[in-house]
Design a protein that fits this description.
Layout: E1 2-4, H1 6-13, H2 20-31, E2 37-40, H3 42-53, H4 59-70, E3 75-77, H5 81-94, H6 98-110, E4 113-116, H7 119-126, E5 134-136
Parallel strand pairs: 1-2, 1-4, 2-3, 4-5
Length: 137
């Protein structure tokens, strides 16, 4: 299992972005049953917001992309209280948003790696002791 953040999943839709080919590898691995992708429920809100406000998708394209994302069978998790407290701690110590820290807290709770395309986030996390590995595409 692997936790992907919205920056990776969004590249499945906006395929002209840098790193899209690496993001699509994770999509392929999930669809082929080689690696289960886990995400917090938050990911859907972030991706939907970006699809609407990126200015790069028509309403029809965004709706189709949403349908495809929902059909992928991602392992969707709501953070339990302990994981949310951990996300809050990570946000404070790493100087990042609680939103971003939720992905890391989920990866820690699941005992798996966290994958992001957000290099700024990855740099902030370098200074913080984590119970998961951070991978950047």
């Amino acid at each position: 299992m692997i936790v992907l953040d919205a920056s990776v999943v969004l590249k499945w839709v906006l395929r002209d972005e840098a790193g899209a080919s690496a993001a699509l590898v994770w999509r392929h691995r999930h669809l082929e049953g080689m690696e289960r992708v886990a995400v917090p429920t938050l990911m859907f809100y972030e991706v939907a917001n970006a699809m609407v406000f990126s200015g790069r998708l028509t309403a029809e394209q965004a709706d189709e992309s949403w349908d495809g994302l929902e059909a992928m069978g991602l392992a969707v998790h709501s953070l339990e209280s302990g994981s949310m407290l951990r996300a809050m701690e990570l946000a404070r110590t790493a100087g990042t948003s609680v939103y971003d820290a939720c992905y890391v807290a989920l990866a820690e709770a699941l005992g798996c790696d966290f994958v992001t395309a957000d290099t700024k986030l990855a740099r902030k996390l370098e200074a913080v002791p984590l119970e998961c590995r951070v991978r950047v595409i």
